[in-house]
Amino acid sequence: MESPAERESMEVDVLYVGAGPATLASAYHLMQTCRARGMEPPSVLVIEKSAAVGDHALSGACINPRGIAELMPDYLEQGFPLEYTCDAPMTYVYLKNAAFRLPVNLPEFRKKGYLVASLNKVAKWLAEKCEAQGVDIYAGFAGDRLLVEGGRVVGVRLGDMGVDREGRRKPTYQPGMDIRAKVTVLGEGVRGSLSRQLIERFDLAGENPQVYETGIKEIWRVRPEKHRPGRVIHGLIPHYLANAFGGMWLYDMQDNLISFGVVTALDSWNPHNDPHMQAQKLKTNPWFRKLLDGAELVRYGAKAIPMGGQTAMPKLYTDGALLIGDSAGFCNAEKLSGVHLAIKSGMLAAETVADACQREEWSSVTLGGYAERYRSSWAWREHYQARNHHASFAMGLPFFFLNEPVRRFLTGGAGLVPNPRFEAGHAAYHKLSQLPEARRQKEEFQFDGVLTFSKEHLVGFSGAQHEVDQPSHLVVADTDLCSDLCTREYGNPCESFCPAAVYEMVNDPENPGRKQLFIHHENCVHCKTCDIADPYQVITWTPPEGGEGPDYQQM
User: Fold this and answer.
1) pLDDT tens, residue by residue, 205-239
2) By C-alpha distance, which of 151, 153, 158, 149 is closest to 179?
3) I want to staple 494 with a disulfide (CB 3.0 to 4.6 A). Which of 215, 293, 321, 503 is the partner?
4) Cα–Cα separations (whole angstroms), residue 536 to 272, 402, 481, 493, 533
5) DSSP H helical ranges for 187-335
6) Distance (Å, whole) CA 208 – CA 314
7) Does residue 512 carry a pLDDT above 90?
8) 342 close to 25: Cβ distance less than 8 angstroms
9) CA–CA gap between residue 52 and residue 139 (Å, rounded)
């Protein structure tokens, strides 16, 4: 038996987990705020699990400029990595074999003046601004668990490195360091592993469970004559609504690139709900065939998006810790827009941390000021207006079309049912026995290798890399359940919902006629869909060794 690891320890005043727009904006604003108040800036450390800042950052991204303009009014002069400014927002409707533009753009898609950008580049740019302010950023270090003492968070333990698939230490073994902090700010993105620990340990969950969509994103290089700078399209796909709520986007980027994506809700009744398939099928529409004729696929990726709205947000603080960005559900589900809210949440958290530094008091008494600031901000008002968007659809498609005009234009976001409840997405599946015979099998689809591609092929465009000889970071509590109960009841949804072909049911050599689960963890693109959509909630996404995962350049 191996002896306990001797761990190094370091101390900082403020620890941020995850180098996304929320944490980087927060760290930058904290340093600026402290200096503006005449205070000595605290020691600030940002840890990031990807090999370089931005490598795991993925978004559409058509960004409401309000957040970045508040953070840094001269952001353009300071070199913000803008692709184009939206000057032609449009709403399209995509049928199976036709497409048409609506004569009037839907209110939620009126995004003239929004910033089309690569979130990967935005994160890298923000990191440079933070470092210039004296913030330390350690990329390639994944947080493994919270450090809690006396009922308060006191820091984070980093994950061990150099462990083989059997859990044995390799010659390269390095125990994870303990980073102790007066306050820990979690901005890990969607379904962050430390954020989950915090919410469960301190009972911070909101009145409704958080629900999610998975966004599939592809970047294509199109022919110059088909490229239109400033074009921003959001699309409705009516025939998809019978499967799950969702839609699409298309934004033009520099160098004749386009950002194309499809979002699919993960609270579908259909156990074969497949976000990747939805995206591939849409490209067979004649409108896309024409646009992508002669085009080249450049990148692929996927990311879950929190869509539960304000009633699904957790409590934002506890003794020694704050939640910001996607980790706290800062996303406007109605407008499919969250980067500006992430930035604003980080700024509000930074002002609260500055208060704590002044008072040298790190309990909920001071950190609760974050929630008060949010409650009096434009971010709260925007979120409040959109608070029941998801709930409206969760009550059924007919109710959605009846309720939405009332909710949006007559009742200030409430709708016909002012305080609706909804369930976690994984609870929405129908069992195979409840489905018509024709729907019990997975849909067959022939990928053409030109416009449409298999998951296995597309993973190669995500840049995903993982050391094979390490414990799988996708932990399944009961694989026998996968072989028996899940096969019978739901037909193994993991083979459908994962956009990276991580989960495969293969023949069990010791039990003819029975299948067993095989996990291709090296394919994982860190979207968190499996952790969310598994009907039995026996899959837990944990961070692999620091520095591993997708490489979302340009995404």
Assistant:
1) 999 999 999 999 999 999 999 999 999 999 999 99
2) 158
3) 503
4) 15, 33, 9, 11, 9
5) 193-201, 275-282, 286-291
6) 9
7) no
8) yes
9) 5
What are the φ and ψ backbone dihedral angles of 246, each rounded to 5 degrees? Answer: 170, -170
User: What span, in angstroms and rounded, lies between the C-alpha atoms of 310 and 389?
Assistant: 10
Q: What are phi and psi of 68, to 5 degrees?
A: -70, -30
Rounded-to-integer distance, Cα 224 and Cα 254, Å: 11
For the beta carbon of residue 363, count every other beta carbon within 10 angstroms.
16
Phi, psi dihedral angles at 465 (to 5 degrees): -140, 130
SS3 string of 315-383? CCEECCEEECHHHHCCCECCCCECHHHHHHHHHHHHHHHHHHHHHCCCCHHHHCHHHHHHHCCHHHHHH
**Exposed, middle or buried by CB within 10 Å (0-12, 13-18, 19+), for 180?**
middle
pTM over 0.70: yes
Residues 61-89: tens digit of each pLDDT: 899 999 999 999 999 999 999 999 999 99
Q: What is the pLDDT of residues 449-472, one digit of tens each?
A: 999 999 999 999 999 999 888 999
Note the pLDDT tens digit of each residue in 298-333.
Answer: 999 999 999 999 999 999 999 999 999 999 999 999
- Going from the C-alpha of 36 to that of each of 30, 78, 351, 375, 395, the distances in angstroms are 10, 20, 11, 24, 48
Of 297, 304, 258, 277, the C-alpha closest to 460 is: 297
Contact 26, 185 (CB under 8 A): yes
Identify the band that residue 121 occupies on the pLDDT scale cut at 50, 70 and 90: very high
* CB contact at 8 A, 273 and 497: yes
| Confidence at residue 2, expressed as pLDDT on a 0 to 100 scale | 66
C-alpha separations of 371 from 1, 22, 180, 282, 346 in Å = 47, 16, 24, 41, 12
Q: What's the pLDDT score for residue 197?
A: 97
Q: Output the CA torsion sign for 366, 123, 381, 201.
A: negative
Amino acid at 24: L
Query: What tokens appear for 70 in the block?
Result: 């508040």
| Average pLDDT over the chain, rounded to an integer | 96
Please give the structure tokens belonging to residue 194. 């430390």
